[in-house]
Amino acid sequence: MNDLALKHPKEVYNALFTASWQTIQVFSSDAKYLNAKTGMISILHTWGQTLSLHPHLHCIVPNGGLDKKGKWVFPKKQTKTSDRTKKYLFPKRALSSVFRAKFMACLRKGIEVPQSTAKILFTKNWVVYAKQPFFGPKQVIEYLGRYTHKIAISNHRLESISDNKVSFRYKDYRAGGSTKIMELQATEFIRRFSLHVIPEKFTRIRHYGIFASKNKTVELNLAKAYFGLEAWKKEKISWSEIAEQKWKIVHNQCPKCKGMQFEIKELIQGLRGPPVIILARNEF
Predict the structure, then answer these.
(1) Residues 107, 112, 116, 121: what is their CA dihedral angle, to the nearest 10 degrees?
(2) Vertex 5 angle, CA 4 and 8, to 5°
(3) Angle at the Cα of 119 (from 114 to 120), degrees rounded to 5?
(4) For the segment 49-85, what is each residue's pLDDT rounded down to a tens digit?
(5) What is the CA radius of gyration of the chain?
(6) How confident is the model at residue 1 (pLDDT cuts 50, 70, 90)?
(7) Looking at residue 85, what is its pLDDT?
């Protein structure tokens, strides 16, 4: 699959999004599970801890949906545990089988997939990891919010750069999530990092169903009204407001004396200007 993602990243990534939403729609419309219209927020990640190519989606799906009358309904299936009051949204094994078929169908619409490759993919058990959040919905939003605009590796994970080698920290989840150090040749580090450059103008955060932009004012607000929440409305929040609300940082305020006046002592100019691109010109 990684070979296809290397050659046709846009087609593979689009197939991930489309197939995921189609799979959710199959189960949400089934009277056995929900029989309602739900929604989904999807975020594309392409990297693993060692910068390997690992395309996958993180999806947020509400525990229920709106029926044809616009009333919120909850899942119907109960768990097989002793606690019969708990209900699950959709079965994971069934999700994986349907997603596999949907993904291959979407991918084949965009590119030609060799039959030998398709045969191998269909013989493998695909994994759909679905679970209820441990600490509630806010914790999930907080977790994913930290990764929406991150790149494959951040500066704090870099250990050293010397002798044409780059060392960085990574978590080895096969070893219980222990932290280890990996050293790569600079060229190999750049190659791996370049794997995660998203195709131009590609949308890596998408909203579906009741979360889609065209449905928010009606369907999302119906859901919020059921739970007694404030109606959704479009708002513009400045970065200074976010800084103050989230991190208690007041714009233009000295963190030490709490004063609001600054005096410019020195302007430090750049050591060099931006690189100049020289285009070759053919003359005949």
Answers:
(1) -10
(2) 75
(3) 100
(4) 999 999 999 999 999 999 999 999 999 877 665 555 6
(5) 24
(6) low
(7) 60
**Strand ranges, E, within the chain:** 39-47, 53-60, 65-66, 72-73, 77-78, 87-88, 158-162, 165-172, 178-185, 205-209
Q: What is the pLDDT of residues 158-175, one digit of tens each?
A: 999 999 999 999 999 888
200: which 2 tokens?
A: 């131009």
Distance CA 95, CA 128 (A): 7
φ, ψ dihedrals at 86, nearest 5°: -85, 140
How is the chain split into domains, by residue range?
2-152+198-234, 157-194
Question: What tokens appear for 130 in the block?
Answer: 């679905």
Beta bridge partners of 208: 40
- Residue keyed to tokens 């169908």: 105
pLDDT at 284: 41
Structure tokens at 167: 């060392």
- The packing angle between helices 92-110 and 115-123, to 10°, is 170
Helices 92-110, 9-28: crossing angle, 10 deg rounding? 140
**Paired residues of 42 in beta bridges:** 59, 206
pTM: 0.80
32-45: average pLDDT: 95
Could you tell me if 31 and 181 are in contact, meaning their C-beta atoms sit under 8 angstroms apart? no
